Amino acid sequence: MTVRREPILVMGVSGAGKSTVARGLADRLGGVYVDADDLHPEENVAAMSRGEPLTDAMRWGWLDRVAEVVERTEPFAVFACSALKRAYRTRLRDHLGDFPIIYLDGDYTLLRERMARRKGHYMPVSLLDSQFEALEPPVPEEGAIAVSVAPSPEEVVDAALRELSSRLQGGPEQSGQAGNTPRRTS
After folding, report:
1. Which residues lie below 8 Å from residue 156, measured CB to CB, with a gap of 6+?
2. Spatial CB neighbours of 171, under 8 Å, sequence gap ≥ 6
3. Is residue 92 within 8 Å of residue 39, measured between CB atoms?
4. Which residues of the chain have pLDDT under 70?
């Protein structure tokens, strides 16, 4: 019998590699990958496709839906969700209780280049500015593990897994915070 565990959130701005890292962690930890982008209502996808940033009002129902799906996922979910603002993470915790957060920390120029190369995603590069404007990196009280996205995806997954494993095994309590605000270089 598999033991039910708390979900794991992989968060960050668009282009940070949330899906890749969450999928990699789910595979290696025996969880189930859930992509919050797949749960957006059609209105949200249409707005983003037109280059319109989502408002808080547009996000509340989506976040509730994400929490519902994550809560039902057995044995546990590793979910990719932007969760840009602390209020969004609080809303998820109101539904799900406490859970580990992997914060994918990347620089604006790198993420812009990655977004420009990706194909078939409804999120246009033009929305990266609004993502950085909305981003409230996790504060130390949230206990997030900050992982740089500059290395290869495999190295990012390895780093996240190392830090997460240390926490799950009762390792040292470190905030994992990068100690600064996101780096926007242009």
Report:
1. 17, 20, 21, 104, 147, 148, 149
2. 165
3. no
4. 1-4, 116, 118-126, 168, 170-186
Closest CA to 145 of 12, 50, 36, 31: 12
pLDDT, position 184: 35
Positions of E strands within the chain: 8-11, 32-35, 77-80, 101-105, 145-148
SS3 (DSSP) at 141: helix
CA pair distance 77, 80, nearest whole angstrom = 9
Interstrand relation of 145-148 and 77-80 (parallel, antiparallel or unpaired): unpaired
Is residue 109 helix, strand or coil?
helix
* 146-170 confidence digits (pLDDT tens): 999 999 999 999 999 999 988 767 6
Q: Are 99 and 9 in contact (CB under 8 A)?
A: yes
Q: What are phi and psi of 60, to 5 degrees?
A: -60, -50
Residue whose pair of structure tokens reads 């280049």 in the numeric block? 113
Closest CA to 40 of 76, 12, 81, 79: 81
First and final C-alpha spacing in the chain: 51
